[in-house]
Amino acid sequence: MQSEATFPPAMVMAILLLMTAGTGLQAAEPATGTLSPASPEISFVSGPNAISNVSATVELICQAPVFPCDDFDLNVQLPADFASTQANAQIVITTAWEGADDYDIYLLDAAGSEVNRSAGSTNPEVMQLPAGQGSQRFTVRIVPFAVTGTLATTTIKLELPLAAGSDPATQVPAADGLAPRYQVHVSPPDLGNDAGEPTLGYNPLSKRVMFVSYVNALRVSFAENASPALPESCAARWENKSGLLTTLNSLDPIMTTDQDTGRTFNSQLSGANSLFEFSDDDGESWTPGQLGLPNGGADHQGVVAGPYPAGVIPGAGLLYPNAVYYCSQSVASAFCARSDDGGQTFGPGMPFKNTACSAGALHGHPKVAPDGTLYIPDSSQCVLGLGESAEKVVAFVSTDAGLSYEVRPIPQSQGGAGSDPSIGLASDGTAYMCYENADGRTHVAVSSDQGRTWSNDTDIGASQGLVATRFPAMIAGDPDRAACAFLGTKTQGPDLELSFTGVWYPYIATTYDRGETWHLLNLSPNDPVQGHGGIGTSGTNRNLLDFNDLELDDMGRPLFAYADGCVGGCVIDPSQNSFAAKGTIARQTGGRTLYSAFDGAPASRFNASTPLPPAAACPDLNSSQRSVSRTLIGWRAPDDGGARISNYRVYRASTANGPFQLIGESGEKTQFVDDSADPAVAEYFYKVVAINAQGESPDSNVLALPISEAVAVDTCALPGELIIQDPAGDAPIEDADILSLAVAEPDEYAGHLVLTVKLANFTANAPPPSSFYPILFPLYDNLYLALDASQVVPRLVYGRFIELPQGLLEFSETGELDARSSYGADGTVVMVVPKTLFGELQVGDVIAGFD
């Protein structure tokens, strides 16, 4: 359920990095530290570094002043039996910095030999190694690979796999074979910016994905299906293919695709009704469905299509082959209605929660098994009418196409958690239930008899020390193969509160043996999905809303849809969480899929145990730049075949057809500076080859890179740096259609920031009567800035807000903004804001997390 707030929908992102002079901190400060169970986190600062050490791509040379490095003396003090009592404990070293520089981490043992490195192109760089036991001494060497006078902060943590008091027996047995591999596809800047609780559908007829982001239906096409085809590692193409009805304001979005027919259903909840459309051509055109059910619920709808159960025959003359179910809940009751004409009309909603289970948490998304059995998972703490409180996670099961239901609990579960459970149904009907237990951990249980009994109930996050999880999403393929995707954190604490200091990442767990063992993978270890501030069930940290989604493509590859809440500066410093909701899809690129028929298929990446050479990389313009003075080639890393990519070779030509000559290597980095580029040559052509221990990749695509003028953003002149953009036409009226926000620090506004908000238009040349346009800063004592037209004469003001029940906000004005603040008839709003409203700011501080 989406919060009902008193302000129009807006994007959430990190706002600004103050840009002025550097500081005078010295390198490697402090120079030494001790890591132990009593002191599980230490940190140090490197720099400022102005001399780049590019030699580190070939051999490690650290001899100041020619090739400077910053060394930190790390002493590790652990009990003598630590490796056996905490077998999965890790030392995690993270180095982060501001700007577009590049630092690397090297770890040396007491003898000075290299034992590990993290030398890619990510910010932050992250290194993990087993904690071991006893006394150990290391040198943590920070190499300024490509720098411009910046500082780097390194944090070293001792991470334990289990919370205090946890039973080691709950750890997941290690799975055999290669783990599946994934690549993340992020929506472009102008799409997918309000994507809390995303759902998606895959059309096997077109091999495209439909993705709902609030009121926008987005179509996603992967690069290998483009014309001409590009390497699979290239970024997917996202397009806005919204309909008419479903672009209206909504309380809840939902989307699904019937893989038998390719029909996509898009629903937007509007009170007790639903705005409903379906498309048979991936969003090129939409057909209105039934607008609302006579007895539908007012919240948390779900839609699914699937076969009819044996013996159930729909009405004569209806042409759609599958049943379509629409389910919703109304706090104390819940209903499912069935359509027999492909979503054009629905019958009456039939209650599926029995009277004993009618109150409680929200239900999960409905699913239909191959035999037509309908399942609806539920995390309610419910009484089964058997004379005792069960308080279990349950599945409501219908074998007669939604006319009646039985409730089937998972015996070892504890119900009542904040996340919906999710069910995946295999080709033979085997049910896999993934659920957040009452203690916050994610479990999977397996049933072979439609939920009457359950087995292999396993805490799938324990092997990596996850102590709190959210939003499980389950899918299954063959009877013994299934996957659950979820968000998780290793930090104990008040994970629902803004005071929480943990970091959340997206995970996916996969079983190939019916839940006996699991592969657990962090999909983006260098990029959190939520920084500090928790993942709340209400309030301003509820940016990710209620759930994520997981579907399969036609080869059994999971497609994980989630909203990324940590973008911009939050990636470098998660304490400055951006509370965003950026539409993201993770897609499997290698390893076994959930369909065994594709295992080891010729020319595929679906290897089970033996690594392969890398797939083709993808040089792209978004990460490349060429000017008269500098040429940078960047690329998206390919599937590594199950073996670490150790080097990339970069080739150049003066024509698209070659001949190409080797001009250099980048090691593990996904970028390369071409120092030999001739500024007299207007356009060069580049390709990249990746290398691992198994061999070389195929050639990448060819990148044409002409000389172009670098565009400098002048933050000292209005409007300054563009922080957010949003497409036009995604709000019901122009007065509520936010297009952009920019920030500047002009000299003539000393002591102030200038925020420029652009709306599509003020249709009456002024803000509508009673309208209110706030910008919220929950991390700054609930500060808000606003254009307030609620009292006849529009004013630009600031104050504090508090959260009320049901997601409502109450605003208390403190004063008016600087008199130079203004609004224009075209929808331009200028807010001149004293910096003091954000406390004692210093150069380099980040003002993060605005809504």
Condensed summary:
By secondary structure, this protein is mainly beta.
Main attributes of the structure:
851 residues; mainly beta; five-stranded mixed β-sheet; five-stranded antiparallel β-sheet; 2 helices; globular; disordered N terminus
* Weakly predicted, low-confidence segments: 1-26, 162-169, 383-389
Helix content: under 10%
**Mean pLDDT over the residues:** 87
- In one word, what is the shape? globular
Class by SSE composition: mainly beta
Please count the helical segments.
2
Rounded Rg = 27 Å
Main sheet record = 5 strands, mixed
Strand content: 35-45%
Strand order, main sheet: write it out. 2-4-9-6-7
> How many individual β-strands?
57
Termini, distance in Å? 18 Å
Describe the structure in your own words.
The structure is a single chain. This protein is mainly beta. It is 1% helix and 39% strand. The strands form 14 sheets. It has a 5-stranded mixed β-sheet, with no helix packed on it. Strands 42, 43, 45, 46 and 47 form a 5-stranded antiparallel β-sheet that branches. Strands 48-49-50-56-55 form a 5-stranded antiparallel β-sheet, with no helix packed on it. The chain is globular. The two termini are 18 Å apart. The model is unreliable at 1-26, 162-169 and 383-389 (pLDDT under 50).
